[in-house]
Amino acid sequence: METKANYVLIGSFTILITAFLLGFALWAAKYSSDQTWQRYQVIFNEPVTGLTEGSSVQYNGISVGTVERLKLDVQDPRRVQAVLKLEAEAPVKIDTRAKMSQAGLTGSPFIQLTGGSPGAQRLTAVDKRDMPIIQTEPSALQNIADTASKLVERVDKVM
After folding, report:
1. How many CA atoms lie within 13 A of 121 on its CB side?
2. End-to-end CA distance of the chain, in Å?
């Protein structure tokens, strides 16, 4: 006896359901992963030599995220805007400061977050469409580079 099954209809239905379930799983995974991250913006008034997208962000020496995007400020090209992707639980407060740092003499540069007193409020955006901005402080690396540059200028004047 022969069955009267429509193989094209059954195959199409199976592929459609499989594609729908796969799409739903990907959407759910992205939604849950985005919920565990918070984005912040840092504006550096100094060069960020060696810092790249994907560089580490540390809070008091503990890795809490990465640099998601780097770009020059449109209004002032001397400034660099960095978008940080940090863990949602990272205690970023209104008195938290960011600076460039480097692991050892030859290590890759990263962003170091410091401060954040226990009584301070969490840093939030003023407008829901904007990212919260973490204030910066000059890095030791930049201070050394500036001092070396001034020293070379003085030696050049003497000679």
Report:
1. 4
2. 106
